[in-house]
Amino acid sequence: MLNAITQGHGARRSKSTKLGEIVMTRDEWPDSDAGLYRNDFYSWTQREAARLRALPPDVFDRVQLDVANLAEEIADLGKRDLREVMSYLGLVIQHLIKLQAAPDARDAAHWHAEAVNFQSAARRAFSPGMRQLIDVAEIWTDGGRAARRFLRDHGAHDRSLNSCPFTLDDLLAADFDVDAAVAQIGAR
Questions:
Q1: 20, 56, 95, 105: which could join 111 in a potential S-S bond, CB 3.0 to 4.6 Å?
Q2: Using H for helix, E for strand and C for coil, what is the string for the chain?
Q3: What is the pLDDT of residues 98-146, one digit of tens each?
Q4: Could you count the other beta carbons within 10 Å of the beta carbon of residue 91?
Q5: Domains in the chain, start-ordered, CATH in brackets?
Q6: Cα 133 to chain center, whole Å?
């Protein structure tokens, strides 16, 4: 059985054999483990938590691990990243709607910069396993509600759509263009 010994990015994995213990760096892990960890952290956390939960109870007694809580903590790492992505996307949408509704506002340049930064943060935190869990329409509704409340409190009127004009891929695109996204809101 492989055991992960985590020490930040220098994580090592060991395997006991009849010849002794084999120690590998993360880069030497089997592709299915290392690749998933690097490319889809969310799915990796959910899979590893499920693997821990599936181990026979006597394994835990021998190594004295609190597996139930350990598995939950691992799963929560991926869920934290998922919440982070959804939060950043909501902030992107809020700023796009504010820019569309009040392009000449004193804070427009700030909103533009924030939209760029939040989109970039969402893109960096995203992993493919999150895709089926992110509801862009719901994020649009929530972000729109927050933007409309802000605009109403500041005397501006929201002219944005009730339905989201973006796909998840639009919002996470490496070449995301805030001005084009604002124009897309206004064009519908």
A1: 95
A2: CEEEECECECCEEEEEECCEEEEEEHHHCCHHHHHHHHHCHHHHHHHHHHHHHHCCHHHHHHHCCCHHHHHHHHHHHHHHHHHHHHHHHHHHHHHHHHHHHCCCCCCHHHHHHHHHHHHHHHHHHCCHHHHHHCCHHHHHHHHHHHHHHHHHHCCCCCCCCCCCCCCHHHHHCCCCCHHHHHHHHHHC
A3: 999 999 999 999 999 999 999 999 999 999 999 999 999 999 999 998 9
A4: 21
A5: 2-73 (no CATH), 80-187 (1.20.1220.20)
A6: 10
